[in-house]
Amino acid sequence: MKISMSLFGTAAAMALLAGQAQADVSIMYADWLADLVEPGIEAYEQATGETVDAIKLPGEGYVERVALDLASGTAADVIQMDSFVVSELASAGYTMNLNDALAGWDQYPSYMSGLTEVVSYDGGVYALPTDTDVRMLWYSVPVMEKAGIALPWEPKSWDDILDAARQIQEKTGIEDAFLLPVGTKRGEATTMQGFYMALLGADVPEAGRNRLRDWDAGKWVGDSPAIRRTLELYKTIYIDEKLGTQATNYATDVDSTIRQGLREGTMGIVASGSWENSCIWDCSGGSELSQSERDGMVNWSEWPGSGLEGTMETTNISGGWAIGLNENASDKDAAFGLLTTIFDQGNFEDWTVTNGRMAVRTDISGGDAYQSDPFLARATPLAANTTGRDTFPGYQIVSALVQQMTADILEGLSVDEAVEEYHAALVDEFGEDNVITYE
């Protein structure tokens, strides 16, 4: 039997040395997922009589901790992971192919195939998704009203967004009229909520013209009109017109700062995702505000394309978290049993609806509780035309380079210089034959 020896599992290891009973199975998860994981742990322990070593970690730095523990051989048996690292962990042999085990679980057919593809690698499913998400532009209703902008706000192009931001600054004096995630501190938020949402609408959706990877060619895109147009958008917002502040993107607690700003009407428009319907108020789903009360204070619109001919009218990209198994779990049957207990329909549906999460299973999305939620009913259709990240081994490196590229714009580099450095970094990392340029 195995116990995690990660930095955050030291107390459990010391208890073992002191003579306490060793756990039968261990799990590591971020603190914000406790409402899903911990009822599942309790149900598993009651049903089996086995004990679970629950290793709850801070959300900050969680993805890096998972990779470190797996690489060092000290990770738990059951592991929460961000969907964008699934392919890399699987390709490294760290996580277990679940195809055979899932074939015997009667609830697995309810999972939406498009979402299990996000957690797959080379034909194998390596995790079960906890939820999916979509991305949108959140805005303060009082700020929009004060600025004289007609509601509901429905921008049709990037120019419409920029015009609204200009009007907000002019009429209200708010500095953060439009916050598009930028820089290295925002991490994956910069790549997904910011850069990629704009990139998808920056050029026509052909091959890799509006993506980071050309899947047909099997190459990373090192330079393209879409990349350059997206960087020009960043330059307009943060350098040329200062429609948003760089400082907010580097605040000590960026998410809390932004959510407070939207609640209190000190920010205008923020690019983020569907989780904000809960998190602006209470990420645990404990807000006492009704949906209509929330919508009267903070509402959202779809992300428009750039408005150039041939580009998409709206864009979206989805991700989400997942839970999988350590390939080196000492008792894989026990680990799989814990996994499926956490994802048992009753527990999973309660968490999905209570927290306003977008469902990944038809037996949940078709339920009365889910369908009666006005936010989910309105937001879920956005997933019909969504896409996913380029979850190919190496994506984490590319994402970090994208974040640095936006940081370079903040530091005063020209678009040409930022793209040149990005292209060179891709060639250095993956080789010239694995990088493509679009004119």
Overall form:
globular
CA radius of gyration is 22 Å
Can you tell me the residue ranges where pLDDT is under 50 for at least 5 consecutive residues? 1-21
CATH class of the largest domain: Alpha Beta
Sheet with most strands: strand arrangement: 2-1-3-16-6
CATH topology name of the largest domain, in short, is D-Maltodextrin-Binding Protein, domain 2
Q: What is the total domain count? A: 2
Beta content: 5-15%
* First-residue to last-residue Cα separation: 56 Å
Tell me which CATH architecture of the largest domain applies here.
3-Layer(aba) Sandwich
Helix content: 40-55%
CATH homologous superfamily of the largest domain - what is it? Answer: Periplasmic binding protein-like II
Provide the residue-averaged pLDDT.
Answer: 92
Structural class: alpha/beta
Largest sheet: 5 strands, mixed
In DSSP terms (H or I, runs of 4 or more residues), the helix count works out at: 21
Number of strands: 18
Blueprint of the fold:
Elements: H1 10-17, E1 25-30, H2 34-48, E2 52-57, H3 62-72, E3 78-82, H4 86-91, H5 99-103, H6 113-118, E4 120-121, E5 124-125, E6 128-129, E7 135-140, H7 141-147, H8 158-172, E8 178-179, H9 188-199, E9 213-214, E10 219-223, H10 225-240, H11 246-249, H12 254-264, E11 269-273, H13 276-279, H14 291-295, E12 298-301, E13 303-304, E14 314-315, E15 317-318, E16 321-325, H15 332-342, H16 345-354, H17 362-365, H18 368-371, H19 374-379, E17 387-388, H20 395-410, H21 415-430, E18 435-437
Parallel strand pairs: 1-2, 1-3, 8-11, 10-18, 15-17
Antiparallel strand pairs: 3-16, 4-5, 6-16, 7-11, 7-12, 9-10, 13-14
